[in-house]
Amino acid sequence: xxxxxxxxxxxxxxxxxxxxxxxxxxxxxxxxxxxxxxxxxxxxxxxxxxxxxxxxxxxxxxxxxxxxxxxxxxxxxxxxxxxxxxxxxxxxxxxxxxxxxxxxxxxxxxxxxxxxxxxxxxxxxxxxxxxxxxxxxxxxxxxxxxxxxxxxxx
Length: 154
Fold this sequence. Notes:
alpha+beta
């Protein structure tokens, strides 16, 4: 599968088909085995403190969670449901007002029942993070795996 086709598929699967991610406007910008990246554009309605213009922590948390989950999905042999088991986020510094935030996540280990991830959020330089995350995901949870073809259908 070509890079642009893979990005479009994961955009449909992890942003457009998940109402909260769609409302945030999360954009998939990279995906390959064990790795995923997303972008969150700065918008006034996502600001936590109107006096500073800094993005609230909630949208950043949702983006890091979704990006880590997307990295997990790239490691699965076949689609299966999974859920966030634990997500720890260290906020290193505030996001700069008016600038988009990029999340990059890696799924570095996967077992029969748990996947392990790490991620950073930044403005273009991963070595100057806004936040760092570590997450674990439970594999094989109840429910059906969401299929990209279902996006947009009612």
